[in-house]
Design goal:
Mean pLDDT: 95
Largest sheet: 6 strands, parallel
Number of domains: 2
Number of strands: 11
Number of helices: 10
Shape: globular
Strand order of the largest sheet: 1-11-8-7-5-6
CATH topology of the largest domain: Rossmann fold
Helix content: 40-55%
Order of helices and strands: EHEHEHEHHHEHEHEEEEHEH
Distance between the termini: 58 Å
CATH class of the largest domain: Alpha Beta
CATH architecture of the largest domain: 3-Layer(aba) Sandwich
Strand content: 15-25%
Low-confidence stretches: none
Structural class: alpha/beta
């Protein structure tokens, strides 16, 4: 049994990014927009900004009032789209109910969409011509790549059908040659379906949803869930202690997918920086 150490893999990825940044003509720039005062979102923003500084990025944090109008937020995004020193724009979700998240995401230029949520970037992933890929699924693929495990022909079951994880995760696995099934709250006989899986990706947001009898011997189990218990501790969607000795490999919570999501955001920002630099060089040569 292998415990997939997301912290270690993320540290190695950040180290590689730091080395690349030293070769850049300027620090890659990431703008992070937080709307309102959600405590969990504030923690995420601090972690992301700290990671930016560690690898040598320029980090611009914009904290907006929960009362900001959609038009004002769109204006802020248009300003950042035009800013040549900002390579990536991230709007922390969820947004207040009066703001349409889809409109905000689509307003970000695809080459600055470091979350990989825009229709253009998701569409490219679906066509197996990925540019900027959604962070968490891409991070999961980086974790799986550390295993001596060929995904081709493997039966993979994803629990959760969100636009952030479940749907793009299915495309990542499909592009890797796996056979993929997505389960969600309306799926019938979900336990029987999960039991057939060679690879399970749990992303439902339900504490210890996946029990020992859901998992076949020798399965690879990736836990994307982050749930807070009454005692304040974090746990995942998988009953880790019950399943770990049964699995071929398993990711823990915390210390698994979470660190990889942030490291992948940095990786995406570096991709965006390179594209931004290429476009600027192209514009200069044309003029």
């Amino acid at each position: 049994m292998t415990i997939i150490d997301g912290k270690k893999i993320a540290k190695e990825l950040r180290h590689a990014i730091t080395k690349e940044v030293k070769k850049c003509s300027r620090p890659p720039g990431l703008a992070v927009i937080l709307v309102g005062d959600d405590p969990a979102s504030e923690i995420y923003i601090k972690n992301k900004s700290r990671a930016c500084v560690e690898v040598g990025f320029y980090s611009d944090q914009l904290h907006k009032s929960a009362n900001i109008t959609q038009e004002e937020l769109l204006s802020e995004i248009h300003r950042l789209n035009a800013n040549k020193s900002i390579d990536g724009i991230l709007v922390q979700l969820p947004l207040p109910a009066h703001i349409d998240s889809n409109s905000i995401i689509e307003a970000i230029r695809p080459e600055k969409d470091v979350d990989g949520f825009s229709s253009e970037n998701v569409g490219k992933l679906m066509q197996n011509k990925p540019f900027i890929r959604p962070c968490t699924p891409k991070g999961v693929m980086s974790m799986l790549a550390t295993l001596d495990y060929d995904l081709k022909g493997k039966d993979c079951v994803i629990i959760g059908a969100s636009n952030i994880v479940g749907r793009p995760m299915s495309m990542e696995l499909l592009n890797a040659g796996a056979t993929v099934q997505i389960c969600h709250k309306d799926t019938k006989d979900i336990v029987e379906k999960v039991r057939t899986a060679d690879v399970i990706v749990a992303a439902a947001g339900v504490t210890h949803l996946v029990k020992e009898d859901w998992v076949k011997e020798g399965a690879v189990v990736i836990d994307v869930g982050i749930n807070r218990l009454a005692n304040g501790k974090l746990t995942g969607d998988v009953d880790f202690d019950a399943i770990k000795d049964k699995a071929l490999a398993i990711s823990p919570v915390p210390g698994g997918v979470g660190p990889m999501t942030i490291a992948t955001l940095l990786e995406n920002t570096l991709v965006a920086y390179k594209e931004n630099s290429r476009r600027l060089e192209e514009d200069t040569s044309n003029n």
